[in-house]
Design goal:
The complex is a heterodimer of chains A (307) and B (337).
Chain A: H1 2-30, H2 44-54, H3 60-72, H4 87-122, H5 127-141, H6 144-158, H7 174-200, H8 203-210, H9 215-227, H10 229-244, H11 247-253, H12 258-268, H13 271-299
Helix pairs in contact in A: 1-13, 4-5, 4-7, 4-10, 4-13, 5-7, 6-7, 6-11, 7-9, 7-10, 8-9, 10-13, 11-12, 12-13
Chain B: E1 4-15, E2 18-30, E3 35-39, H1 46-53, E4 62-71, E5 74-75, H2 81-87, E6 92-95, H3 99-102, H4 109-121, H5 125-138, H6 144-148, H7 157-169, E7 175-179, H8 187-204, E8 207-212, H9 215-218, E9 224-229, E10 232-238, H10 239-244, H11 249-256, E11 309-310, E12 320-321, H12 324-329
Parallel strand pairs in B: 3-8, 3-9, 6-7, 7-8
Antiparallel strand pairs in B: 1-2, 1-4, 4-5, 9-10, 10-12, 11-12
Classes of the chains: A mainly alpha (307), B alpha/beta (337).
Chain lengths: 307, 337
């Protein structure tokens, strides 16, 4: 298993990160404008000095090589916009916020999604199946930029139960987590239902029932492991997406996380900040997918390699 | 008192296209330690008969239309679910056709093998593990302790069926139902598995219901055989007798179509036509359209007339047939003209 993880890290994760960094490096340079273009033009002399300070006067290839060398040392470079801060420290400050939001959303998605999926799978084509599945369909169709403001309107303004924006009290976590998690919950519900239906129709479930096991034991011991596999494979990208894909939700609820940083960095042409955030998100994605592969191998003995 | 006494069992599947009458008015009984073979082609209702007794059919669409199945004086068809579960896997166990799919691929053999002991006998984990290892050794698997920690995909088909048998017999059930346990296996392995079931039966005195479509398999494993066609029991007999003198036209035709019973060079006789559509069973005896001995009353016969009944003398002992002509006119009816 350790060999498998190391192989994945060195032969798949590193090349992937290299490609991400390279593509992003050249693509942000393709966008018109630069970090120091404002409505008010700075003088040519100031511009020259700024470029020299940040190394922007060197040929692009040289800049690229220097950047890669820094990234390899774990230094994502300085921020153009936030003169006193490095990209590392900006990410270090914003990421925990996004991480917390993502984890709350994940908790919401797993509990409601997998719970609803299991309930729906047990009595197919009855109202305990149709009810949750209809809700799930609505959840998939409703984008977060619609759901978020609707929730805000109802619970923030009309009922006044929670604050409409900010990231200070425990109550501030509820609406963003639901808004971010709803789509994933809905998707998980449908995946779990499909997975459980598939497993429950297998011969070995009949064997389990022929052994006189209680329905609870048949489901928990014999069906759940296999039935949750599709959901687990979805969880990897889902976790990464929940932690890093918070642009919209962070904007709606004014949460100082990674999403807001990237959006602002893109507006400001803050080259190193965009790059750093993208490479960092890529890294998180890769780690999550690796964790999922490990989890799947643990759940499905037939996938275990080299044993 | 018989161990299992099934009376007038009928099972239907209620589908969008109508009711599939899978089992019609089937009755049979089994003494303790007895062995009954149920023979019939695919769709003849042999598996459904047994699955319905154990409550393993999905309901809906399946529905028990009539009947009773007394096991030890308790009617299996009317027991509350929790009571029935107390009998399944403890007093009645089942082995299924395809050992590749009948074991849970996600659980270790140990988990699956010790389960009946933990659930039904209240054994401790350690004691159950020890007994599971013994059971695995008992069905001829070498190094049972190590094998217990493996998963089903690490076993071959024959080995998996051995595991299934060990799992089914680990609680010393009084009735073992084997549903085509050798069909999915290659021929050499088939013989080993049959031998294993015979040995276990001899050692523990377990009653066995052995379902198969292969008449040759019945020989040696069952004392009596019940032949099914289109959901009906058409004949029951002691095993040697049915090969010697079949007393239903379907059984006779089935025996003539067994390749191994044939002299080389002689053309193999198949049964003309196909079995009836279970959605639209013909009136009267279901074999009438394919029967070389059919006469007009056959297609008019009522359910009561088609029940298994004794054959007039000089009939051998314990012979029952559903053929209305044999019941009325005797075994000579089936002599080719």
């Amino acid at each position: 298993m350790l060999k498998f993880i190391l192989r994945r890290l060195f032969f798949e994760a590193l090349p992937t990160l290299f490609v991400i960094a390279t593509l992003t490096f050249f693509m942000v340079r393709l966008a018109p404008g630069g970090p120091f273009s404002r409505e008010k033009q700075v003088s040519a002399e100031v511009q020259r000095r700024l470029d020299a300070y940040y190394g922007l006067d060197k040929p692009l290839v040289v800049q690229y090589g220097r950047y890669l060398a820094n990234v390899a040392r774990g230094d994502l470079g300085p921020s153009f916009k936030h003169a006193t801060e490095s990209v590392n420290s900006l990410i270090a400050r914003a990421f925990p916020v996004s991480l917390e939001l993502g984890l709350w959303a994940l908790l919401f998605a797993i509990v409601t999604g997998i719970g609803a999926g299991i309930v729906a799978s047990l009595r197919p084509n009855t109202w305990t199946d149709a009810g949750p599945m209809t809700l799930a369909m609505a959840g998939i169709c409703l984008p977060s930029f619609v759901l978020g403001p609707l929730l805000l309107l109802l619970f923030g303004l009309t009922l006044g139960w929670v604050n409409v924006a900010g990231w200070n009290t425990a109550g501030d976590r509820i609406l963003p987590a639901i808004t971010l998690g709803a789509g994933y919950a809905a998707y998980l519900a449908r995946l779990t239902r499909a997975g459980m239906r598939d497993i429950l129709s297998q011969d070995f479930i009949r064997t389990a029932r022929a052994k006189g096991l209680s329905p609870t034991r048949v489901i928990l011991v014999h069906a759940l492991k296999g039935g949750l596999l599709p959901s687990v494979s979805f969880l990897g990208p889902a976790v990464a997406g929940l932690i890093t894909g918070t642009f919209v939700v962070e904007s709606i609820f004014q949460i100082p996380g990674l999403g807001q940083i990237i959006v602002n960095a893109a507006f400001n042409r803050d080259y190193f900040l965009i790059l750093g955030a993208v490479v960092f998100i890529g890294f998180v994605m890769i780690v999550m997918n690796l964790l999922v592969d490990v989890a799947q191998a643990l759940m499905n003995p037939r996938l275990r390699l080299g044993e | 008192m018989p161990l299992l006494n099934v009376q007038d069992l009928s099972v239907g599947f209620h589908t969008r296209h109508g009711v599939v009458r899978a089992v019609n008015h089937v009755s049979f009984s089994l003494e303790p330690g007895d062995s009954l073979g149920i023979v019939g082609e695919s769709g003849s209702g042999k598996s459904v008969t047994c699955l319905s007794l154990l409550g393993l059919l999905p309901m809906p669409p399946a529905r028990i239309e009539s009947g009773a199945a007394a096991f030890d004086g308790q009617d299996l068809l009317r027991l509350p679910a929790a009571k029935l579960r107390g009998i399944l896997g403890r007093d009645i166990a089942m082995i299924f056709q395809d050992p590749m799919t009948s074991l849970n691929p996600y659980l270790r053999i140990a988990t699956q093998l010790t389960e009946p002991l933990l659930v039904h006998k209240g054994l401790s984990r350690a004691a159950a593990f020890k007994q599971a290892a013994a059971a695995l050794g008992g069905v001829g698997i070498a190094d049972p302790e190590a094998r217990l920690n493996q998963y089903p995909h690490e076993f071959s088909g024959g080995m998996r069926q051995r595991v299934m048998i060990a799992m089914a017999t680990i609680t010393r059930p009084r009735l073992l139902i084997a549903d085509e346990p050798t069909t999915a296996l290659d021929v050499t392995v088939q013989a080993q598995i049959l031998e294993l079931i015979k040995t276990l039966r001899r050692e523990h005195g377990t009653a066995v219901i052995f379902i198969t479509h292969n008449l040759a398999v019945i020989n040696g494993i069952a004392d009596r055989v019940m032949v099914m066609y289109a959901g009906q029991a058409v004949e029951t007999a002691p095993v040697p007798a049915i090969f010697h003198q079949p007393l239903h036209p379907y059984t006779a035709a089935l025996l003539r179509s067994v390749p191994s019973a044939h002299k080389p060079g002689e053309p193999l006789q198949s049964i003309l036509g196909t079995p009836p559509d279970p959605l639209r069973l013909p009136p009267g005896c279901p074999f009438t359209p394919r029967c070389p001995f059919a006469q007009e009353p056959c297609s008019l016969a009522t359910t009561a007339e088609l029940e298994l009944g004794p054959v007039p003398s000089p009939a051998p002992d314990r012979r029952l047939t559903a053929c209305i002509r044999v019941k009325k006119e005797g075994a000579d009816v089936l002599r080719p003209a």
